[in-house]
Design a protein that fits this description.
Number of helices: 4
Shape: globular
Length: about 325
């Protein structure tokens, strides 16, 4: 990221958007009828349904992907929130769906953990010059880091140690306006960076990530904020075996959050890397079989986040879009 781009972004227009947890709906319609009143109530019910259909049809004509936005900034912001192609996911590594149990650095101590988001928000700053739009995307979330500790497998007793969680996100993107104005006033993603996530209490950092596979014999990423053309993001073949190495500070645990195959099933998983030297963690990932754009998160935790029940949540993550085709 060069300094001129940063200065341009700071001059742009900022739109603040309230974060909505994935489990919440953006719109809910309730239709209720008490079972009395006979034919007249049924007529009223049908009339209400007809009105509802008219409202829904009118709403479709005002589709957010059309040309009804008042400003270019609104169109670009809505595209990022709609995320039609998958480039702007960034919170997939939160949740209990990838909870695993491991034996950690202390003898006869087993842990399981997961992150839960309770609140958050986004700030999107957009600076437009001609047919180019320079975007700075930042976000914050708060919630709970759930740590479960037990000393036997299967466990006799499980002790829950919730810790306060606060994470901050940053990424950049460049959009270009095309000639087809039917969607988002013609704006289209052109270049994008990865995402860096830093906890409120942070003393650990990722240094670099190495990727080794048929598609990338030896590629090292040292900066999550390097711009990449949308058509040139990391691209793998279905079911490709990828050897990953993450270079980090000492005294951390390293993980990969991604979709892939494990135990014969393909969904969102969390893999723990193997420690092979001071600050060096390795692992093998098998890419999904279905072509799509998805996100992969390289995630580190200070060892005491898991080994010490009272130590605060302390994390750093790099998240990158990738394509399977």
């Amino acid at each position: 990221m060069n300094n001129s781009y940063r200065k341009q972004s700071e001059k742009g227009k900022k739109l603040t958007v309230k974060w909505i947890p994935k489990s919440e709906s953006t719109c809910t319609v309730f239709l209720w009828q008490k079972n009395k009143g006979g034919f007249m109530n049924r007529k009223l019910l049908f009339a209400g349904l007809a009105a509802l259909i008219l409202i829904l049809i009118w709403g479709c004509e005002k589709s957010p992907t059309g040309t009804t936005f008042d400003t270019d900034e609104e169109a670009i912001t809505q595209m990022m929130l709609d995320n039609p192609e998958g480039f702007f996911s960034y919170e997939d590594h939160y949740g209990a769906d990838d909870t695993t149990t491991v034996k950690d650095g202390k003898a006869e101590r087993y842990t399981a953990w997961w992150r839960q988001i309770l609140d958050g928000g986004r700030d999107i700053t957009i600076h437009i010059e001609g047919d180019s739009a320079y975007v700075t995307f930042s976000a914050w979330v708060t919630g709970t880091f759930h740590l479960f500790v037990f000393d036997t497998i299967p466990p006799d007793t499980i002790i829950h140690y919730p810790k306060n969680l606060g994470d901050n996100f940053l990424r950049y993107a460049i959009f270009r306006r095309g000639t087809d104005l039917t969607e988002y006033r013609g704006w289209r993603l052109e270049m994008i960076t990865g995402v860096e996530v830093t906890s409120d209490s942070n003393t650990v950092d990722i240094d670099s990530v190495r990727i080794e596979c048929v598609s990338y014999p030896d590629t090292v990423i040292t900066d999550p904020f390097v711009f990449v053309d949308r058509d040139n993001i990391l691209t793998f073949t279905p079911g490709e075996q990828v050897q990953l190495t993450i270079y980090v500070d000492d005294s951390v645990y390293a993980f990969l959050h991604a979709r892939g195959r494990c135990l014969g099933h393909c969904h969102w998983w969390r893999w723990r890397f193997n420690n092979v030297g001071v600050g060096i963690w390795t692992g093998t990932w098998t890419t999904p079989l279905i072509p799509s754009v998805r996100m992969a998160a390289f995630d580190i935790l200070h060892q005491n986040t898991l080994d010490d029940n009272q130590y605060p949540y302390n994390s750093n993550a790099w998240i990158f879009p990738y394509r399977v085709q």
